[in-house]
């Protein structure tokens, strides 16, 4: 299959990847490799005045574990296939997965809607390139197939039917998608990104040989629109995810938060031991108590925000670098 990733196109490709009259665009147009991506396909109108009957998204090579979000009133179908090569996953190595997602229903030409899916961007999607998600829009007696990919030196604006694209950036160099003022991070300080205030980010220290570490913080949304925490990163970890711990008949269970953690307007969400938290996976070395680690948090609206994590003691339930109380 054609690999729809073109490294080195970042300078040639604007974040607004499609012309003003395009039917299909992506709401989130910037992401990091080795992170979960929440794709929101926006359908602005039908095909030459005709109502939209189905929307199909093709998942490109290098993107795995795709899961669609159901829509009320729309039928949902997926087609699976083999990947071009095996990819590591926190569930083990995967060799196949969802390749296409189709929603079937009715969307009048004069109405707007969004079609949402979640997937993981692997290390095959390198910073400096763009990943393209072809979208096929079927209408009453007409089809709009948005799958053209720019050639080297070409812009999506030059194409008739451009595929929606996601620009891949290195975590350390990521900038907010929105024009949000971000204060310089300091360990345990409050970082502001647009309407969000991020307070006291910290990580539990880990023993040598550990492969995972927990991260914690508080996020306050002072705006009028909800936002979602999608992912996190630190240099020590291959990837960072938002997880939730819960108790089921006395047994502690932990799982990723599908679609990201929502921070509602006026709400403060605490990520802390025993509940919602960040999980940093595939550590390259130990997190040492008393150190600080520069990292990022990726939000749906605020974009990618730089933060500095203080490293607390092993087993600590508070961010004091030297120890603190232990979690019971």
Describe the structure.
It is a single chain. This protein has 328 residues and is mostly beta strands. Helix content is 0%, strand content 49%. The chain has no helices and 23 strands. It has strands at residues 24-26, 30-31, 35-43, 52-58, 63-68, 75-87, 94-107, 113-121, 130-132, 135-139, 142-146, 165-168, 191-193, 196-204, 212-221, 227-233, 237-248, 251-256, 261-263, 268-271, 276-283, 292-299, 303-312. Strands 13, 14, 15, 16, 17, 18, 19, 20, 21, 22 and 23 form an eleven-stranded mixed sheet that branches. A five-stranded antiparallel sheet has the order 6-7-4-10-11, with no helix packed on it. The relative contact order is 0.17. Residues 1-22, 172-188 and 321-328 have low confidence and may be disordered. Pfam families: DUF1775 (PF07987), PCuAC (PF04314).
Q: Structural class of the helices, strands and pairings?
A: mainly beta
Give the tally of β-strands: 23
Number of helices in the DSSP assignment = 0
What fraction of residues sit in β-strands?
Answer: over 45%
Largest sheet: 11 strands, mixed
* Amino-to-carboxy terminus distance: 51 Å
Average pLDDT works out at: 81
Note the overall shape: globular
User: What ranges have pLDDT less than 50 throughout 5 or more consecutive residues?
Assistant: 1-22, 172-188, 321-328
How is this fold's topology laid out?
Layout: E1 24-26, E2 30-31, E3 35-43, E4 52-58, E5 63-68, E6 75-87, E7 94-107, E8 113-121, E9 130-132, E10 135-139, E11 142-146, E12 165-168, E13 191-193, E14 196-204, E15 212-221, E16 227-233, E17 237-248, E18 251-256, E19 261-263, E20 268-271, E21 276-283, E22 292-299, E23 303-312
Parallel strand pairs: 2-12, 14-23
Antiparallel strand pairs: 1-3, 3-8, 4-7, 4-10, 5-8, 6-7, 9-12, 10-11, 13-14, 14-15, 15-20, 15-21, 16-19, 16-22, 17-18, 17-21, 22-23
